[in-house]
Amino acid sequence: MRIVKEAEERRNEILDAADELFSQKGFDGTSTNDILEKVGIARGTLYYHFKSKEDIMDALIERYNVRLLDAAREIAAEKSVPVNVRILRAVMALNMSGGSGEEIMEHIHKPQNALMHQKIQRAILNGVVPILADLIREGIEQGLFKTPFPYECMEMVVAYANAVFDGDMVELTDEERLTRIQAFVFNVERLLGAESGSLMFVMQMFTGGEGDGHE
Q1: pLDDT at 153 over 90
Q2: Which pTM was predicted?
Q3: 13-39 burial code (b ≥16 CB/10 A, e <16)
């Protein structure tokens, strides 16, 4: 008996299969036939949901964006955790790892995929800034920050971090990267009117640790 599945369920099955295959074989090394065989569907069914392999990648990027932003919002809402720690964890939650996340990031950095890269950047800017701005407002209420422009400050911070630390737009040696990070934290503290040295924990975001946000 032929099993007819709901469109959304079938679409997610295709995305799950592609996610796994891209992670194992890479985007270029995965064919549409590989995806068809893994899901067990006809080519017409695949093309009913997606126009091409690139379209599948685009949908995976969108799905990753939704998951990452949902995770960041959940972290930001944990009022029992100090606001500084939540800021760090919310940003760390945006790191694409696991599944085909790294494959996706590698793929979108290719010149021919500039549009995908732009979509990721736009999603981060539009999605992350409001989350972080709310945390800054909470920090203002607690006396940690002093700025009349919480949203605009976070927009500047995210835009700069996205451009300079993205690894695609600016090529940096390890020494140059460390200097940029120090300058970044130094200036963010002043941008937010924070006490000097109070945001040094942010450096852990770039050096691989998480810490607890305390000196």
Answers
A1: yes
A2: 0.71
A3: bbbebbbebbbeeebeebeeebbbebb
